[in-house]
Amino acid sequence: MPTSGVITNPLRGLQQFGQSVWLDYIDGLSDRASRGHDVSGVASVASFFVSRIDAAVARASAQHPAAKDLAGAVAIANAKLAYEHYCNLVSSPRWRDLADAGAQTQRLLWASTSSKDPSYRDVLYVEELIGADTVNTIPPATFAAFRDHGRLRASLVEDLDGAHRTMRSLADAGVSIDAIADALLNDGLAQFSDAFDRLLGAVSARTNGRRRARVDRQTLSIPARVRPAVMASLVDWQRNGKVRRLWSGDASLWTSADESRWLGWLSVADDQFAHLEALQQIAEEVKAGGFRHAVLLGMGGSSLCPEVLRLTFGCIAGFPELHVLDSTDPAQIRAIESRIDLTRTIFIVSSKSGGTLEPNIFTQYFFDRVRALVGEADAGQRFIAITDPGSHLQQVAEGDGFRTIFFGSPSIGGRYSALSAFGMVPAAIMGLDIGRFLRATEEMVHACAPTVPAADNPAIVLGTVLGVLASRGRDKVTLVASPDIGDLGAWLEQLLAESTGKAGTGLIPIDGETPGAPDVYGDDRVFVYLRLESAPDAAQDRAIEALDRAGQPIIRIAIEEPYNLGEEFFRWEMATAVAGSILGINAFNQPDVEASKIATRALTDEYERTGTLPPEQPFFDAGSIKLFADPANVAALQQAAGSDRSLIGYLRAHVGRLRDGDYCALLAYVEMNRAHAAALQAMRDRLRDARRIATCVGFGPRFLHSTGQAYKGGPNSGVFLQITADDAADLPVPGQRYTFGIVKAAQSRGDFQVLAERGRRALRVHLGADVADGLARLRRAIDEALTTSGC
Asked: Dmax of the chain from CA atoms?
């Protein structure tokens, strides 16, 4: 079967045409012939936009008046000189040798040959472009006109001297044929690309209509004043081939740093099918082993996806119940341990780098506990590792005889790893049908493929809306999810905050706020409603409709059933990368998370050396509640409080620093349980309703690996209330001088230190050992502070 090709860049200078286009073609044929292959079936054309050259010259003549005399002559002159060069090449000895072997010439193809200017002869670009070995893509109307009154002659070889004079005159007039050619080439490629994308999209819609219709169930309600900017961005992504560039790993979409190294998530869903048997095997092995519980030991990207799946799917009959430990709080560790039978529990140690503090000390603690119960020889078989190849965790797992090791991909960052081994191994062990999960995910991957036009690509549209709205002040992405998939917001928090919250910009995710009346929201919001179609919530529907009527931007995403969560993992990963590109930041690093880790490590190292953390002095002490801040914040709070140096006075001063467009984050280093969450939720609802600002709640230290990046590196619009407490009972870390309580204290102090270094408005409230009572007192104090401030 003949091979054909189209080369569309012979416009950039005639000598370059001969050297780059034709010589490349000849080189290719010569190489094929030297390998003993037949060259007679190879066919190719070199395509010229003809009438568009004259149109471009006409436009250029507005700035270069001397070019007006060349109207209607440049395109034909350019074509004649190209044909002259072609004739010289085909008469060369090198080409004759190829012709003797049966090679076909690369014919010149004239495109855009209708006369766009009514003052030109309607068959101008047909009559003047006639020659052997050429192709003319004549429009039907032009063809009919030529049949009626066209003149047939070998016009391409006529008056070559005149063609040379025309091109010299063009240059003398100050018009560059190279610049015209480049512009036409870029425009032509964009049009061809758009047309081909529309073709593929139409084929996909016809062959896979229901599937595409389901994954595309994303509707937008965007204020009219920002719609043009959103559409302009989508046009930019389409015209400049940015979707393809993203898929090909073009780092210039972001900051031209190392972004291309972190795009393995694009293909991981497909790659996982190759590991499906191994995932099914470990699931059956754990099930057959009689394990009743599985405990994942990890942080951030290693723990949040399994947590979403645990809370969405619950305990699946016949498989172990999954628990997730991502806190150094001693009470939380004890709570996990109280719910499991250590002798019938499989532990999944999940750490991409293998050097993260928390999973390492979790492993030390539980390995020591299991070893004491089942013995040294059998302890390792109760542990599975998920890590990147060559990590410290791999060495530990091999040394301690772990049951197995699953490897992640070094090209996938933690928060983008939901569909990699870090998400799918725990999912398989808890009993999910991984094949079904991945097949559903693949539907979204195909819907977001590089050939899908940007305006039809669910992830590109979502990311564009988020990025454009954030750049115009609507940077609080308020997540409302159906109750049965409610924890999806916690995963999205990390993805959005850690990916975009840096360099003083970013998306601030707002998860878990109780939907309120429209009048409690400012104009800094964009709402995303993740509606589970199989279990919708009527109250949420009403709240979103009210916000829509009030003119708030709403993005509605319909999720058919829980097994479609994988589609959302992929949609949002790509959308976040797109939003990061629009905001002009690296969407794959987390510089300020590392800063907190360094500060924490310095404190734990000092404890290991001295047996104590550095002393600290509260600036306010009410016995069971103490207040701490850095000197700059203390001075600001004392000035704002005036003569009222009470707890309520300082809290009033602190919340008084909130301005329009700000958000307030409650960062609690206490056990994450229902009672504590309810108390914090009541505080945030009161703050939002009183001040019309966005609110966040984070449990430490887990939020350090999630939203902590945006709090420190994102826009300086946060007002932070850190909440710490004494531990009623501590837990030792085997092999270390420090305890879990000391680690948590070091993490909270390191976190606060970096907030202060970044110039954030931060206040730390330290409660006593009775956390419930302390939170109740703090809640009353905040309510009083807001009431007496007139809010």
From this structure: 104
